[in-house]
UniProtKB/TrEMBL annotation:
PANTHER family: TRANSCRIPTIONAL REGULATOR, MARR, TRANSCRIPTIONAL REPRESSOR OF EMRAB OPERON. Gene3D superfamilies: Winged helix-like DNA-binding domain superfamily/Winged helix DNA-binding domain. GO terms for molecular function: DNA binding; DNA-binding transcription factor activity. It holds the Pfam family MarR. It comes from Ciceribacter naphthalenivorans. Residues 6-138 form the HTH marR-type domain. Keywords: DNA-binding, Transcription, Transcription regulation. SUPFAM superfamilies: Winged helix' DNA-binding domain (SSF46785). This is HTH marR-type domain-containing protein.
Length: 143
């Protein structure tokens, strides 16, 4: 018996992720970054001088995806890489002034994207959905 897609949490989660990514991408493009770069930017706004390995652990994406993302960010003038002071194989990653100047607008754009997708939700419904999302993500990490 075929399952109705609207009854599949995995299907709905994928559609929701695409919706949030599209909502952010529209706003991010106007500011000069991509939606996929936002998690890296957030980590670097919180702490600069991280290695690619540290970013991988914090953002939880594939190595190849991180390498491509960082290359695009460097090309677009958002980050600079410098040799690690004690590990010749590693590089430390710093934001450029351009990326530092984007922080307020980028976070506002992400908030606008959230607000657009939560349109019509009452405050407690949004908070409850966010709690359920965090819970499901934590369960997924255990797999």
């Amino acid at each position: 018996m075929a399952q109705n897609r609207s009854d599949s949490a995995t299907y709905l989660a994928g559609q929701l992720a695409k919706g949030f990514a599209r909502a952010l991408q529209v706003r991010a493009t106007k500011l000069g970054f991509s939606a996929g770069q936002l998690p890296v930017l957030i980590e670097l706004w919180n702490e600069e001088g991280l290695t690619q390995k540290q970013l991988l652990e914090r953002v939880d994406i594939e190595q190849a995806t991180m390498a491509n993302t960082l290359s695009r960010m460097e090309r677009d003038g958002l980050i600079k890489r410098h040799p690690h002071p004690s590990d010749r194989r590693a590089q430390v990653i710093f934001l450029t002034d351009k990326a530092r100047d984007l922080e307020h607008e980028a976070l506002a754009a992400a908030n606008e994207a959230d607000q657009a997708l939560f349109s019509g939700f009452r405050r407690f419904e949004k908070e409850l959905m966010l709690e359920y999302m965090r819970w499901a993500i934590e369960n997924a990490r255990k797999l």
